[in-house]
Amino acid sequence: MNMRFLPGLLILTLFSCSSTKNLINEDFQVKMNKGACFGSCPVYTLDIDNQGNAVYVGERFTEKMGKHSMKLKKSDLQDIAKKLAEVNFFALNEEYKSDVADQPLIAISHTNKGLSKTVKGKDRRPEAILELQSMLEKVAETAGWKSLEPAADLAKTDESEEEIEEEDKQIVEREIIIQFKAGTIISRWMREFREYQMYVQKPLTQDNKTWIVQYNTKLINPQMMLHKVQAHDGVESAEFNTKPSLR
Q1: What is the rounded CA–CA span in Å between residue 223 and residue 225?
Q2: pLDDT-based confidence at 140, cuts 50/70/90?
Q3: Same domain as 155, residue 94
Q4: 33/105 same-domain check
Q5: What is the pLDDT of residue 245?
Q6: Which residues contact 3 (CB under 8 A, 6 or more apart)?
Q7: DSSP-H helix ranges across the chain
Q8: Number of domains observed in the structure of the chain
């Protein structure tokens, strides 16, 4: 090798390492939340800090239910930081609206150097954001996650928080039985409640007027959710679902 090029090569290498390091500040964090759809879309949250510590919380339709953790490779963390800088994340719109009801709402949040922003949307997001999402999904789907909270324990926790005993029945607050008025377009109605990650579970009648829907009780108080649904012009009646008591 020509020795004359060594100083320049050394400077270039140091500059590259320094520039990558500058992309990850002490408050660096990236988080992705994948919401529900009408079908069996995986629902989970992925959270990564400035040291590459990742936490995954699986909620529905995913092999990893409950809380899991792993440590990212330094190169993987740097690649994510580079992509965030490349897409100019803090200059993106906060929301990219969509007319498609049957798609999960994806929210990606990022904090770095005192700046914080959340970008959410479905099918009409920039290609660069879709590439970032794909990169985070690969992290979520990779092997090596360590379970911190067994799924069975998580289910017990959810039941204790969301189900209230009432005489010989238990109210399931995360599920609402809705009878829609004639002429109500359910897909359009669902879009009004997408911020609560509401999705249709199944129809209860052959005329498709009565359905069971589910939503994320962490995003809204159940009683407030029920009141919102009951007050909607397109709803004939609504009540929490129930199931027999385990007593």
Answers
A1: 5
A2: very high
A3: no
A4: yes
A5: 52
A6: none
A7: 6-21, 74-86, 127-141, 151-162, 186-191, 222-231
A8: 2
